[in-house]
Structure formats: C-alpha cells, structure tokens
Design goal:
The complex is a heterodimer of chains A (about 200) and B (about 290). With about 200 residues, chain A is α/β, with parallel strands linked by helices. In chain A, the strands form 2 sheets. Chain A has a 7-stranded mixed sheet, with helices on both faces. The longest helix of chain A has 14 residues. In chain A, strand 8, helix 4 and strand 9 form a beta-alpha-beta unit. Chain A has 6 helices and 11 strands. The two termini of chain A are about 25 Å apart. Helix content of chain A is about 30%, strand content about 30%. Chain B has about 290 residues and is mainly alpha-helical. Chain B has 14 helices and 3 strands. Chain B is elongated. The chains are: A alpha/beta (about 200), B mainly alpha (about 290). Chains A and B meet through helix 3 and strand 7 of A and helix 3 and helix 11 of B.
Chain lengths: ~200, ~290
C-alpha cells in the first residue's frame, strides 16, 4: 500500500469523486471507504499489481476506483441500477474495471463473466451477507483472501454486533475458510466489522 | 459443458466460440444462467485457445466491451418498467406536501408579525384562504411567497390526479381496494411493484410504520397494527376492537392484489368484489 506522510493514497487518474490530491496521488479517505479504513486499522492484505479482484457491492465506484489503481483487474458487482450508472462512468475511464449489474446473491447470473480471483471483497447490506460470501467463494482461488465487511445492523438489528460477528465467523469456518482476524472499523464506520479469511 | 461469455467449452475441452454480432452476444450473456453445481471458473487462456483474443490485454478489452453493453441493457430494462416513473411522482408529491406545509406555516407566522390583530380563532379560516389573504394583503416578498405557495398547491392537485390515474394503470387491483393515491404510496414504500408483490401480507400491513415496528422489535412496545393502509376508510373508521383485524384482512387481500397487478396487469372484478366483501365483513363488531 502507498502511504504519503501517514495518508493512504492510490496512484491513478484523479477527479473521480472530487477526492483530494496529495503529491500527484489520490487520497483514499477511510471515512468514505471501508476498505480504506481497514488499512488505517493495520490490515496486512496488500493490493498488488498482478491481483485479480471480485468486488461485491461496488455501489458508486468510489472504493472500486482506488482498488483499480492498485490491481490488474477488478470485477465490480452492484445490484442497484442507480449507483451503477456512476460505476459505469468510472469503468469507462479505468480500463481494468469490469462492471456487472447483478445481485451478488445470484452468482449464476454473472458467473460466465468472472474468472478466478485472488481477492474477494464484499460490502453488501444484506441480512444473508455470510451466505452470499460463501456462494461467491467459487470464484476465489485456493489460498485466496476474502475480506467480508460485516454490516451487523443489516444482519439483525436486535442482536448484539459481537454475537453477529461470532456467528458469521463460525459459518465461514464451516464453509472451509481459515479466519485470519477481524477488526471493528471504529471510529471510521459504526457497527461494521471486517473479517479477513483465507480459502482453504 | 461450461458456458462462458465468449462461448461454450465441452467436457472434452473443446471450445465452441459464440458466433454472432455484439448485440446477439449481449442477448446470450443476459440469458445465461450458470449451473453453479459443477461450475468451473473461467480461465482467460481458454478464450485465447478459442480464438477470441491474442493476449490478456485484448481479453480484458473485449470482456469490458461486452460487460459494459450488458450493464447498459440491464439499466435500461430497470428504468423501462412502468412503476419507476410512478415512484418518482409519489416522491415528488410527498416533497411538495412538505414544502407547502412548511412555507404556509412560515408565511402565516410572518403575516402575524405585521398584523398583530390577526387570529384564526373563531373564524375557521381554511389554510387555502389564509394563503390567498396573505398573497393579496401582504407586502413584497411575503406576498410573493404566499403566491408561490398557492401556485404550488395547484401543481400538487394536478400531480395528485396524475399519480392517481397512473396508479390505476400500474396497480389496477391495489387501486381498486385502496384508491389510486394510497395504492401508489404503498408501492412507493415497498420500493416498487415487484418488491411489493413479493411481500407477505404481514409486511404490507405495517408498511409505513417503520418507527413503531423497530421500537417494537428492540423494546417491549406493542407491535403496530397498520401503516399506510390506515389511510383506507375501512381501517380508520373501524371500531378500535376490530381495527387490527380489518387491517390484517385488507393487507392479505392487498398481497394478492399486488401479485395480480404484477403478473396480470389488469383489474380482476371477481377478485375485487369478493375481497371488498371480506374486508367489509371484517369490520362488523359482533
């Protein structure tokens, strides 16, 4: 990861969403991007130039644009048509983004487009977030990394965030993932936990 | 056999590239449903073996071209549905209502400052008339503000009529039970016709009672009996002891009506008649 004076940045064409530019690099704001936040929290999952990424819950393409600056290709899946129009604009300008308008819970609708990836990143606000990750793990190569942004409030508002996290981790472990660690995204995002695990 | 965006690869490893122009290729990708049971993620090398591309760069370029077209098609489909415009109209209506209320209140307060003797007590001045008075008697910007509110009220009336007309086309059965305006609000709260049609009756019953529902889930308060459907006269006119029952019956019938609207798209008189009878019967206190 590229840091300039303690600020996380990515190198690429700027002006995607009005991000700040620091010494010719695009500032990656941890308050806007959950993936950005985990690097401020000390995540060791490096984004490398040969990496292939499947990104579920791409939204407006803010975080996607930063990931694209670091990696070889990124498959960006988003379900809602409205943010997808923004994401399309971003992917027209960045030649390594493959936009896919589909429901991440139904990989059968986009499986013909996605190749095997090194990193599966998921940030969807759905109650069945864990099973979505498990269903999409077919795209992840053996030994590949899964980063699951667990939005505990979307899973069940009546449960304690800690319970929701423990439940998700045990389900991932049962599906054949090795849990590497978890991190709460305070103070950048509330009630969000990032679970990092390895396939196999 | 494995199907990928560029063609099919048989179990013997033989590749059959898809032949056809880009439009046909997009159609094929849109229709593809992969069996995830024996799915093998694609390897770009097999696309090269298929003769689709010479190198990785060309592979990504062609894949992006296809996926951007597929995405554009899916966006167009999503926005082409007839309920999408209705959603915007309901949203606009709610916002106009808000603005009119806010500005009317402000104009009245402002008018009172300049006219201390003014009072609405014992006069029964309807708000519309009050706004008219301010527009005529007020000064400068105040009078213009009131005139704007008046004009916005006209827009609101026209918009409400349009919403109602459109709802009767998009939601003929729901409108038959609820009236166009309330039916449109119900659909707006569900997020569209197809989400509404997928909802269980119990969810439809409390659509629009979000705060009450969540306070019920996290505290020990009573569950809400009704949300938007309270606006139906059979619900709000029902005696308190059967109001919950009427709401339940109405919601159950609406769940059926929404499915009829989505899958048939025309009013079904037999259904409307029997549903109406059932709702009326539910409101009778024995």
């Amino acid at each position: 990861m590229i840091w300039i004076d303690g600020v996380l940045v990515s190198k690429g064409e700027g002006g995607v969403y009005g991000e700040r530019i620091l010494k010719d690099a695009r500032v990656w704001d941890p308050y806007r991007s959950k993936l950005g936040a985990i690097y401020y929290k000390g995540s060791e999952v490096d984004l490398t130039p040969e990496m292939r990424v499947l990104y579920l819950g791409a939204a407006h393409g803010t975080t996607v644009s930063h990931v694209a600056d670091y990696t070889e290709v990124i498959y960006a899946v988003e379900m809602a048509p409205r943010p997808m129009r923004d994401l399309l604009e971003v992917s027209r300008r960045r030649k390594n983004i493959v936009p896919i308008l589909a429901d991440a819970a139904q990989p059968e609708t986009y499986a013909s487009l996605v190749e095997e990836v090194d990193l599966l990143y998921q940030d969807v606000a759905q109650p069945d977030q864990t099973s979505i990750a498990v269903r999409n793990s077919v795209f992840l190569k053996g030994g590949g990394t899964l980063i699951l942004m667990l939005k505990t409030q979307s899973v069940d508002v009546t449960k304690e965030p800690l319970t929701v996290l423990a439940d998700a981790e045990s389900r991932l472990a049962r599906a054949g993932f090795t849990i590497m660690g978890n991190e709460w995204l305070e103070p950048y995002h509330r009630d969000h936990a990032a679970i990092t695990c390895r396939k196999g | 056999m494995q199907s990928y965006w560029f063609g099919d690869i048989g179990d013997d490893g033989e590749c059959k590239a898809f032949i056809g122009d880009i439009t046909a290729a997009v159609e094929r990708i849109l229709a593809l449903r992969i069996n995830m049971g024996d799915f093998i993620p694609l390897n770009w090398q097999s696309a090269a073996d298929c003769g689709i591309c010479l190198n990785r760069e060309e592979y990504i370029r062609k894949l992006r071209e296809a996926s951007i077209l597929v995405t554009e098609r899916r966006i167009a489909e999503a926005y082409g549905k007839k309920d999408v415009a209705l959603l915007q109209m309901v949203s606009a209506l709610d916002e106009i209502d808000n603005i009119i209320n806010l500005l009317t209140g402000r104009a009245a307060d402002w008018y009172i400052v300049n006219t201390p003797a003014f009072s609405r007590k014992y006069r029964r001045t309807p708000t519309r008339k009050l706004v008219k008075t301010i527009a005529r008697r007020g000064e400068g910007a105040m009078s213009r503000l009131a005139a704007d509110v008046e004009q916005m009220s006209e827009t609101r009336t026209a918009l409400a009529r349009e919403v109602s007309d459109m709802a009767e086309k998009v939601l003929p059965n729901c409108s038959g039970l609820l009236g166009g305006l309330v039916a449109a609000r119900l659909m707006y709260n569900a997020g569209g016709l197809s989400p509404l049609a997928r909802m269980p009756a119990s969810t439809i019953q409390i659509l629009g009672a979000r705060t009450a529902l969540f306070s019920h889930l996290s505290n020990a308060t009573l569950p809400p009996k009704h949300g938007i459907i309270f606006q139906h006269k059979r619900v709000h006119n029902a005696p308190a002891e059967v109001r919950g029952k009427v709401a339940r019956v109405l919601a159950a019938k609406l769940a059926i009506a929404a499915r009829l609207d989505l899958y048939r798209g025309v009013a079904v008189p037999e259904f409307l008649e029997s549903a109406q009878a059932r709702i009326n019967a539910a409101g009778v206190v024995l």
